[in-house]
Specification:
Layout (H helix, E strand, L loop, with lengths): L12 H7 L1 H19 L11 E10 L5 H16 L5 E9 L2 E8 L5 H13 L12 E6 L2 E10 L3 H17 L5 E5 L4 E6 L2 H7 L3 H11 L2 E9 L2 E8 L12 E4 L5 E3 H4 L1 E6 L5 E4 L2 E10 L5 H15 L7 E6 L3 H29 L2 H17 L13 H30 L4 H27 L7 H7 L1 H26 L6 H34 L1 H20 L11 E11 L6 H21 L6 E10 L13 E12 L9 H12 L7 E8 L9 E4 L3 H15 L17 E7 L1 H5 L4 H12 L2 E8 L2 E8 L2 H4 L2 H6 L1 E3 L5 E3 H4 E7 L4 E4 L2 E6 L1
Parallel strand pairs: 7-23
Antiparallel strand pairs: 1-3, 1-4, 2-3, 2-27, 5-14, 5-15, 6-14, 7-12, 8-9, 10-11, 13-14, 13-17, 16-18, 16-19, 17-18, 20-28, 21-26, 22-23, 24-25, 27-28
Helix pairs in contact: 1-13, 1-15, 2-11, 2-15, 3-4, 9-10, 10-11, 10-12, 11-12, 11-15, 12-13, 12-15, 13-15, 18-19
């Protein structure tokens, strides 16, 4: 086989491109201009947004206990979806008033087809409870929240909500912002509260009042009448939007013909649902305004837009109301982009300087040019893989910076060597490129092969990691083309150095002489000694290998699949017994806040603090106060401390979490207390053991024993056995005496539900909010256990009977939450 020197200098693609510099320059311009043009249309986001291979089913069952939700909804859904083609695993959660089912799909299956099958099967279920709402079924999707605006102040909830709604509506009107949602708010509700004495006085039930309200507050089109002068539309206009408008609805009449209206017997409140949820920022009530990125919107543009709007709004705010930005993730994106650009700039400078010292200065320049050409040119291929510009892909670009320069350096060095051997510039470029083409190609293919398996990682982790090979492979391909076809053309037509370039080349000549002296007098003698004593050399190499393995095996160098990333937001999540009163939850919240400030004082004061967020009613997750995926209630109390960036404090988030944990000590009545000081995939529980058994008692006992065993291990903290007593529960069974009076089980259940949970008379849209009209007993009567037994029920014959006489009352406890996996109950010990 002929050597590269013996092949005709005009044959082959490398020679053709080297001779035709216009073609080489055109390729480079396509990479640069095309890459820049396409990069402006590549989606920018903090973390990659994707649809996971999962279908989520959510069914609301207001007022139901977890066991009723499991029995009435989850079992039916599991039965119909587990056997569908494409379904891999089904997990379910029954919480108070809601069922959630997650259906994981087999990799590669058509998710839309499976989604349609799931919808059809669930729609065919006829056994759902009467009061269960329509199932919500959708493909799970990860949405990117950019930042959160906290509207806070010592004001009434209604005032804060009105300001938050204005912020939301104004932001949605600004170009570049598409999705804004409110959080940490209670749903709107119009409460119609009727005392028992009025019900008994007029022979009414709450269900009848609810029915009358629903039938009176109506807005219904009646078609049209086509007259000679044109069509006239017909419409019944009795819609009522606000609480005061319901007061005039007639409910009953007295024997003398007087009309009794809702306002005569009821107190009407236009407010919020009776939900145990409160949020605080720096000790003041707060409402969240969440801003998301959609489509081609960028985190930076959204952040800048929001900050500009807040500056415009602050002078117009009512006195005592403030605005704060919480967890602006565009800052993370901006920092990563800055790191990429800084590394690229430093890489260019180092490559230019080092190659300028060892090789020709012009050769160093063209080798350096290959670095940005490869990065920019990769955008021609990145959109084909579905990747975007995000935290993960920017990390991939940083990885490639130190690799792609090798191709150009090796190609440039061999061409320089051929020139030093006396070959003309053009021939040296062609011969050198041909000689190194094979090694460079196989080196690039080897690098690509190393990253290709990341394309096939399944699950949510695979959706994240797939960004890395998408970027790396594209950059490597462009780098290979640039090194073998563009670089030789530039080096083959380099002109002789002028006076300016000769001046720049002087350090190279001096350094080259010094390097040759070092090689001749130091390196070569050392190399001869190593070769002459080859057994000693091999032994030293093996010893170093054993030492390296020992460092890892002995734990001196820690190993982790995904490293923990220190967070600026430190979270403490406390769980009280299920159904704990709000007063107790507020006391725990205050104690957590006080201990956080005490921990800050130990760490140098509040100069390291940006803000403190407290929340009662739901779990705090991730890097910001976000709504939980399942359980809600007064038993969940969380506090988050937002610290200044790490370079402005002398302690880590984990250090502060440990200090905070120590300052809290033991809080009586807590079931669990956990801390989170890390972000990323490792920010969740390090240990998560799921137990399953048919017997609830056996399962809870095993979980408690396992938690006790784990507590014996040093370094294991924040243990949660997953067992909670649950709320006290009273179960009713109708007595035969009630049947004889014309009261059946359905009547009993509806009257009890109406008295305490309420009767939903109406549900309608008011602006952007869905508003329920609920009819129930006054809060003063619902807060007393005496009311339960003395509740007067109306019989079918028009008589009255006390609840204690109509039903047997059995005390017990309800589940806090029921989790299921593959049709079996589970308990997680974390």
């Amino acid at each position: 086989m002929a050597s590269p020197d013996q092949i005709s200098p005009r044959s082959g693609p490398i020679a053709w491109m080297t001779h035709h510099t216009v073609a080489a320059n055109l390729v480079m311009l396509i990479f640069i201009l095309g890459g820049l043009l396409i990069s402006t249309n590549v989606k920018q986001e903090v973390f990659p947004e994707f649809k996971v291979d999962m279908i989520r089913v959510s069914v609301a069952y207001p007022g139901a206990s977890p066991e009723e939700v499991e029995q009435g909804i989850i079992l039916s859904v599991e039965d119909v979806v587990r056997g569908l083609d494409g379904v891999k695993e089904v997990t379910s959660t029954a919480s108070e008033g809601r069922a959630k089912v997650e259906i994981e799909l087999i990799d590669g299956v058509n998710a839309d087809n499976v989604l349609q099958d799931v919808v059809n099967e669930i729609d065919s279920i006829q056994s759902f409870p009467e009061l269960a709402e329509k199932p919500m079924i959708s493909l799970a999707e990860v949405r990117n929240q950019v930042l959160m605006v906290l509207v806070h102040g010592n004001q009434e909830e209604q005032t804060l909500r009105e300001v938050a709604e204005r912020v939301r509506d104004d932001l949605l009107q600004r170009p570049g912002i598409t999705l804004v949602e409110l959080g940490a708010i209670r749903p709107r509700e119009i409460a119609v509260e009727v005392p028992q004495r009025h019900l008994r006085a007029y022979g009414l039930t709450l269900n009848r009042i609810g029915k009358e309200i629903g039938e009176a507050a109506i807005e219904l089109p009646g078609g049209g009448v086509k007259t000679a002068s044109g069509e006239v539309l017909l419409r019944t206009q009795e819609r009522r939007d606000f609480g005061r408008e319901f007061a005039e609805i007639p409910i009953a009449s007295t024997p003398d013909g007087a009309i009794i209206t809702v306002g005569d017997i009821a107190t009407i409140t236009d407010g919020f649902e009776d939900v145990d949820e409160e949020a605080f920022y720096n000790g003041q009530r707060t409402v969240q305004v969440k801003v998301f990125r959609v489509g081609q919107e960028t985190p930076q543009s959204i952040s800048e837009n929001v900050y500009a709007y807040l500056e415009e709004l602050r002078p117009e705010l009512p006195e005592g109301i403030g605005l704060a930005v919480w967890n602006d993730r565009s800052e993370i994106y901006r920092d990563r982009m800055y790191l990429l650009l800084k590394n690229a700039f430093l890489g260019l400078i180092l490559v230019l300087l080092l190659l300028g010292l060892f090789l020709d200065i012009k050769l160093a320049f063209w080798v350096t040019v290959g670095l940005p050409v490869s990065i920019i040119g990769s955008f021609l291929f990145i959109p084909l893989t579905g990747a975007s510009i995000n935290m993960i892909s920017l990390f991939a670009f940083i990885i490639t910076l130190g690799i792609i320069v090798d191709d150009a350096v090796v190609a440039g060095e061999i061409i320089y060597q051929k020139r030093e051997q006396g070959l003309p510039l053009l021939n040296a470029a062609i011969v050198g490129a041909r000689e190194i083409a094979g090694p460079i190609t196989f080196a690039v293919l080897t690098n690509i092969a190393a990253f290709l398996p990341m394309f096939f990682v399944p699950g949510d982790l695979g959706n994240f990691l797939r960004q890395v090979p998408s970027v790396v492979v594209a950059v490597f391909v462009v780098s290979l083309i640039e090194s073998l076809f563009v670089l030789p053309a530039h080096l083959g037509h380099t002109r002789e150095l002028s006076g300016f370039w000769k001046t720049l080349d002087r350090p190279r000549r001096w350094f080259s002489q010094a390097m040759q002296t070092f090689i001749r007098e130091r390196y070569q003698p050392f190399l001869r000694t190593a070769i002459d004593n080859r057994y000693v050399t091999v032994a030293l190499g093996v010893a170093l290998l054993i030492l390296a393995a020992g460092m890892i095996g002995g734990g001196h160098i820690a190993f982790t699949f995904l490293p923990a990333i220190d967070s600026e937001i430190i979270t403490a999540q406390a769980n009280l017994p299920y159904g704990a009163p709000m007063e107790q939850s507020r006391r725990v919240l205050d104690y957590l806040l006080e201990s956080a400030r005490a921990a800050l004082a130990q760490r140098g004061g509040e100069t390291a603090l940006i803000g403190v967020y407290g929340h009662i009613g739901s779990a705090l997750m991730g890097r910001g106060p976000q709504a939980p995926t399942s359980a809600r209630g007064s038993h969940m109390v969380g506090v988050q401390v937002f610290l200044v960036p790490a370079d402005r404090r002398d302690f880590s988030g984990a250090d502060f979490a440990n200090t905070w944990r120590s300052s809290i000590g033991a809080i009586p009545g807590l079931e669990s207390l956990t801390f989170q000081a890390e972000i990323g995939p490792t920010g969740d529980a390090a240990i998560d053991i799921q137990l399953s058994h048919r017997s609830r008692a056996t399962l809870e006992t095993a979980a408690q024993e396992l938690a006790e065993m784990l507590s014996q291990y040093a370094g294991v903290t924040d243990i949660d056995d997953g067992v909670s007593l649950g709320k006290p529960q009273l179960s009713f069974r109708i007595k035969p005496e009630a049947y004889s009076l014309g009261l059946n089980a359905t009547d009993l259940a509806r009257q009890v539900r109406g008295a305490f949970y309420g009767v939903e008379a109406l549900r309608q849209q008011r602006g952007r909010d869905e508003v329920k009209v609920m009819v129930r007993l006054p809060e003063s009567e619902r807060r007393s256990s005496f009311t339960i037994e003395q509740l007067v029920l109306l019989t079918g014959q028009g008589g009255e009977i006390a609840l204690a006489e109509a039903a047997e009352i059995e005390s017990g406890r309800a589940y806090t939450e029921i989790k299921r996996r593959e049709a079996r109950r589970i308990t997680a010990v974390t």
